[in-house]
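Task: fold both queries, return tokens.
Query 1:
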Amino acid sequence: MATSEKTESGYFTSEDVDAAPANINSVLVNPFIGMRHEKMDELIEAFINKTKIEDIYHEVIRKGAFLAQDGEAFGGPRTDSLRLKPEEIEALRREDPKTGNKWDQPWILYALVAVQGWDETAVNGAQLCSLNWRLMLASPMLLPLIAAAYVFTLPESPRWLLLKARQGKTAYYEKAFRSLCRLRHSRLQAARDLFLMHHLLDGEEKIKQNRNRFVELWSVDRNRRALVASLTVMFLQQICGVNVMAFYSSEILSPVLGDKAGLLASMGFGILNFLFALPAVYTIDTFGRRNLLLCTYPFLAFFQLLTAMGFLLPSGSHSRTGLVLTGMYLFSVFYSPGQGPVPFVYSAESMPLYVRDLGMSMATATLWFFNFLLAVTFPRFQYSFGNTGAFGYYAAWCVVGWFMILFLVPETKNLTLEQLDARFNIPTKTHARWAVKEVVFVVEHYLLGRKGASRPVLSVPTESEAEMDKRRLPPRKLSMEIEQREIPDTEA
């Protein structure tokens, strides 16, 4: 039987702490599930006493705590005197995806979004100027300086403030609450998130004391598969050659168009990159991360190859100019909604909560390492193999990348944390076999028009209810098998 261990502000059992890694998410998502009203009152009182938040916030903290336990806590009759105000009900309605608008967020959240790549444009153009090294060093300074000054107007990270508060600096609890108030529509939402974040930190600390997270990042199958998938998409984002065009497009195009026209043409690449990234705001959650990559990578390979072939045409000819620009611009069009945004979203969501910071750090480091490698090797590639050989090399990697995504990158669209555990618990070999059958189905059903073709389906059985009750944790998803499902013939 599990023993209970009381922390300063919460209860975590030895069973929670020793839980299999596939189930740790359930411990960290909501530590209040199933807790009695009396126990919640104890936690709330302990939290208020510890944080020493002003008395005027005590009521909203209490309401926020019960909302942290259950989003429907105020949806029916209550035995206590806590009631929501009309403006609090409205704030929760705006937040609910069923009744609100996902774009209806405090303006400060949008202000946190920074524009990336302007410094690349400055460096890009500086390569063509007579004072190139001075401009290359100085031109990227302006926008980062503006961004650095702007940072001081933004609220501090509530999580960071809570970590400082847990070191004995009690005043930081109220600072964290005020920061959350700027990031939410109402104090109620800020109080709810503050209470939940504080107790989740208890769970994180307890879990870290009993396991080596870095080792489990590699040794636990579910973690390793998510890490491999994340590193794959980050690696491919760079090796497809996009930043060769971002960094060197002016230099590449100047022999084709001339210096000034080459610089203007390189701006077109950046503009297209921005414009065609906008549809991903919708498609990344509807079409899916994996599907976006699989559908766009053949085009990336084709247009890199088209660009490479353009440099084989006679220098100065209109056909060479047209083919090179067409290849580069259409590459940007298909890169932007797929391989542009997907790696960051995918890496951030695929890792389990308890190792997410380590996994995301490694994924980001991989991206910037290959960004650096691409930037320093292209001039040598260009000198040794010419533009045709260099772009042909990146086209080949796009072909290889399609197969890497097919076999190593599972879909994560609209999956809960527990469903992500299930998806990444599927053995890689099994997923690869299913992927091959899925490709065969797509060819037969959509290209050859065989409407009765059977589509392979991933099914993940769970443990029995008896095993669930015995372990007191949500079910650990076990094995996976490929089933056949008939696709009904919709034609008359």
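Query 1 returned. Query 2:
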Amino acid sequence: MVFSDRDSLWDAWGSWSECSRTCGGGASYSLRRCLSSKSCEGRNIRYRTCSNVDCPPEAGDFRTQQCSAHNDVKYQGQFYEWLPVPNDPDNPCSLRCQAKETNLIVELAPKVLDGTRCYTESLDMCISGLCQIVGCDRQLGSPVKEDNCGVCDGDGSTCRLVRGQYKSQLLANKLDDTVVVIPYGSRHVRLVLKGPDHLYLETKTLQGVKGENSLGLTGSFIVDNSSVEFQKFADKEILRIPGPLTADFTVKIHYVGVADSTVQFIFYQPIIHRWRETDFFPCSVSCGGGYQLTSAECYDMRSNRVVADQYCHYYPENIKPKPKLQECNLDPCPASDGYKQIMPYDLYHPLPRWESTPWTACSSSCGGGIQSRTVSCVEEDIQGLVSSVEEWKCMYTPRMAIVQPCNIFDCPKWLAQEWSPCTVTCGQGLRYRVVLCIDHRGMHTGGCSPKTKPHIKEECIVPTPCYKPKEKLPIEAKLPWYKQAQELEEGTAISEEPT
């Protein structure tokens, strides 16, 4: 490798630091040292993304966590419950939070933690207080974008554009009607109602759980884990859902006026049923030269199961692959046999396959456990009826495991933060620290044993002599330890026991 004069003044890059986050996309840095007695041209630090796996739903939003960390610290003498103020166009990487049920908005920190998203609907992340571009490939500075189907650097072939218009038809005995059913996984949903009537939503998850939302007021809210934006005006309503939808959404209209209403809608619907080419079927003969074919089966991308062909015929974009033919078992038949054995499978029927029941619940919630399932060999007839058959028919492919380890991550444990400054500037006082129960992802959780919790306050002595009379308190430190200093003034006993 050839180094320029500019690069030769630098030492080699050091190892990468730990990731700033355990999930959801964080940042890691590497440093290098200038070997020149003068300054070096260039930067001594570089960054890369890390932990680019989605956080579990219960983990919550990273910016929200940072705001809520200030809930137990007084602001101007009062406690507040802080909520994030996202999408600040001027400084997206400052921690601006709003006190719940008030108009009070405060910058609680000049910089959010590395890995925090700059904007709600973007992968761009804050690093050292600056917003850095992140592509859909999760790489810093990458220009790669998702297509309308949600595929990174895709060509838009995995979804289809659906647009249409609905016009209300007032009937004396009809109070509402279905406008459109938008399936699971759809993206970039937009509906505009013009007229006196009102939109509302019905949902159904893949597990069959049903829900309803009346869309009463303008605002943003969550419906079945999907973000919904709704605007209500005097003569029209606008509904936006970025997606992907986590349930089937049925948009309905409720008739409230005598005039007609129209609804225009547009969204990108995923092609969830696709043709998949099978492996070659067994050879038509056991020896002496025969042939074998492939076929195509219709595959449900949501349930990861083979379904009837009619589902794939629904999409004009789906073109069924033509069968492939090849010769097989070309070796001559043994002289003792003198005949070809015909294999017992119909070339045009699906092969027998392994099927399994869902995994049982894990035997342990953390620290490692096991879960099991039942595996059987099944066969599907021409009518699509599935029945159990002898296991030897499925032995052409490995049998699925019936036992697997689960929840192998460590159990939650206590993590003590650094001690606060002493509550006094001279003499004897108190100091405090935050003790959190942290899970294997580094997230604040529950489940730690109270018996092993480290203590959160202790005595401290500042060696500076106090020159004030004993009956007066020493000079107090500033917030956030004002509350504890007050307790000392009131004569609260100092305790080593955890609270």
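Both queries returned. Flag for query 2: Residues 1-5, 342-348, 484-499 have pLDDT under 50 and may be disordered.
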